UniProtKB/TrEMBL annotation:
Short name of one Pfam family: FUSC_2
Protein name (record): Integral membrane bound transporter domain-containing protein
Keyword Protein transport: no
Classification lineage: Bacteria, Bacillati, Actinomycetota, Actinomycetes, Streptosporangiales
Membrane disposition: Multi-pass membrane protein
Main location: membrane
Subcellular location: Membrane
Organism in which the protein naturally occurs: Sphaerimonospora thailandensis
Length: 353
């Protein structure tokens, strides 16, 4: 259901935009069968929420140019499989000379295919088809702006995926420490290695959300809430990276004479819960004060003593994750770092160990 709900705006954009493009092409441009107007809307909306505006505009121009070039070439060369291949090659070559972007070139080629396959014998001018495609593209962009998906929903969904992944890795690591189970730690490490994809998807989703807000007046009022996601983006990515290092050192520490203490597992669980609190508060549009308080409580706790080398490194990574997540709540780096137990205390404990 969530997956279907996420595509409902695109369905509405395609349906309404295609109808409007057809009406405009028929009523204002006087074209009897403006096939390429709704096709251009469909193509534009299909990438409108997944690409930056510059690429959408590039696509619209590519569709229009491909239709025009394809029509001219078909009128000179004719139709048929081999002629179609020649039309595609020539159209993409011309596009490549005009613009080296892959999207632009491929869109010119695919539009030329449509011309060669669908309407090679109709008595319709190439300029009319270009006008239809351009009309559809412009209306497609307008549909994305006037019937936009929620940028907060897009950003929030992907940030939830990142924080869920972080929380899972920390929970699994805590369980491995409590049970002294190297196999569980290895599973946590494998889980951690898969988290980077979620972070990259969130970064892309955030860019898309910012693009929607820029082009859609209906979403301008959400800029302040989206800014909280922007604040969290880099620190959360760093927290994931530090979590992967933490799991690796935990796995090593479990094989050493001085394994990680249960207190370290407790702190990991509390940071895991704080990550979920951060997710909930940002999703609710609130300043993440509860998550910040939970992280500060972990930061202020007395540190375990008598740790081995790998356990000490894991503890250092836990400190880094706490700082990262405090920054994700909006705290500056200096204040977040100052909330931690001073490093000299940790050094004294390690020396006494």
């Amino acid at each position: 259901m969530d997956t279907f709900g996420s595509i409902v705006p695109s369905i509405a954009q395609c349906a309404v935009g295609s109808a409007l493009a057809w009406i405009v092409a028929v009523q204002l441009l006087g074209h009897a069968r403006p096939l390429f107007a709704p096709i251009s809307v469909m193509i534009c909306v299909g990438v409108g929420l997944g690409q930056r505006l510059r690429r959408v505009v590039e696509l619209v121009v590519g569709v229009s140019l491909g239709v025009g070039i394809g029509t001219l070439l078909v009128s000179w060369i004719g139709s048929g499989p081999w002629r179609m291949a020649l039309v595609i090659a020539l159209a993409m070559t011309i596009a490549g000379l005009l613009n080296t972007g892959e999207l632009f070139v491929s869109q010119v080629g695919s539009s030329a295919v449509l011309v060669a396959m669908l309407v090679p014998h109709q008595d319709v001018g190439g300029l009319d088809r270009m006008a239809d495609a351009l009309t559809g593209g412009v209306i497609g962009i307008a549909a994305v702006a006037l019937l936009p998906a929620s940028p907060l929903t897009i950003a929030g969904k992907h940030l939830s995926g990142v924080l869920d992944a972080l929380s899972t890795v920390l929970e699994q690591t805590a369980e491995a420490i409590e049970k002294g189970d190297m196999d569980l730690a290895a599973e946590a490490l494998e889980c951690g290695r898969r988290t980077q994809t979620a972070a990259e998807e969130f970064a892309t989703a955030l860019e898309n959300s910012k693009e929607i807000i820029r082009i859609s007046p209906l979403r301008w009022h959400q800029r302040a809430r989206l800014a909280r996601y922007e604040t969290a983006a880099v620190p959360v990515d760093l927290a994931l990276r530090n979590a992967r290092v933490l799991v690796r050192r935990t796995l090593a520490a479990l094989g050493e004479p001085s394994p990680p203490p249960a207190a370290l597992a407790e702190s990991l669980r509390e940071i895991s819960e704080a990550a979920l609190l951060l997710q909930l508060e940002l999703g609710a549009g609130r300043e993440p004060m509860l998550a910040r308080q939970a992280l500060l409580a972990v930061a202020a706790r007395e540190r375990p003593k008598n740790l081995g080398f790998s356990a000490n490194v894991a503890l250092a990574q836990l400190r880094s994750i706490a700082v990262d997540l405090l920054q994700a709540t909006g705290m500056d780096h200096g204040t977040a770092s100052a909330a931690l137990t001073p490093l000299n205390e940790l050094s004294d404990e390690s020396m006494h160990g």
